[in-house]
Amino acid sequence: MGEKKQVKSNPKCGIRLYNVPFGGKRGMKLTKLCPKKKASNKRGRLSASAKFHRSLVREIVGFAPFERRILELLKTDREKRAFKFAKARIGGHKRAKKKREEMQEVIIEMRK
Questions:
Q1: Domain presence at residue 37
Q2: Which intervals of the chain form a coiled coil (predicted)?
Q3: Which of the listed residues 10, 38, 92, 100 has the most CB atoms within 10 Å of its CB?
C-alpha cells in the first residue's frame, strides 16, 4: 500500500557515541538527534501556488499606475529614468532594479 519515502539524512546523524571515559566521544552511549530544517531557510522562495496566484491577479487586475508609467518610460528607451521613478515609488535600489527588469520582460512578452 503506502511505501515509505527515503528521507535524505545528514551523515552525522545516527552516529553512536561509545561509553569511553576519555577522548572526543567520551560519555554515555547514545544516538545523535538530527535538527529539523528551519522554516526560515525557505524564506523568499516562490512556491508554485503563489506564482500561479500572482499571475492570475496580474491577469485580472492589470498593472498599478506607477507600473504603467515605468512601461511607458521603458518603451521610449529611458531606462535610467524608469529606474529612478521606480526607486522613488518603491523605496529601494534592489527592488527598483527588480521591478525594472520585470517590466522589461513584460514588454518583451507584449512584442511576441
A1: no
A2: none
A3: 100
